[in-house]
Amino acid sequence: MATISIVHFSGSGHTTKMAEAVVQGAASVPGVTAQLVTINGDDINKGRYKNDDVFKQLDASDAIIFGSPTYMGGPAAQFKAFADASAERWFRGGWRDKVSAGFTVSGSPSGDKLSTLHYFFTLAMQHGMIWVGMAESPYNDKGINRLGSFSGAMGQAGQEPTDVAPNAADKHTGELLGQRVATVALKLKR
User: Fold this and answer.
1) What 3-state class would DSSP assign to 28?
2) What is 2-189's CATH superfamily?
3) Residue 63's beta-bridge partner residues?
4) Boundaries of every domain in the chain
5) Which of 21, 32, 139, 162 has the fewest beta carbons closer than 10 A?
């Protein structure tokens, strides 16, 4: 059995919709337990993030998938405060060799989302984690990976007037990322 944690911050709910899709994809792999872990802004005091329960969940996980909206070309400040607080794990190598991946959502097709994914990648490399990207080509008739990212899953919010969350294709891309991470984590655990 492998445990996959999807840790994310969401400002207006769009990133949570994508996180739920990633959880659904990871949980669809037999032998995997997937859990949604939310970064709450109320856990930040004077710029410092503190929530021991969140870190205990992540410490017990075989894989951690990072998620944040892209704001001004990078992850939300709330996610960054969480990432800074992970330094204790870095000092003792607590997340070394855990599988990792990332996803992000913004209102435009690009919105510099790649910068956010590269931030997650750098965070994972700092921790000595094993990064898993997207394997799906954007050249398909289902809209999978339609934004063309191989570093992680990208979603666009607000592209349809009646649906401000990422569309079905973007959420399906998130599901596929969750499945891939879960499959890799399970193989490594065996």
Assistant:
1) coil
2) Flavodoxin domain (3.40.50.360)
3) 4, 99
4) 2-189
5) 162
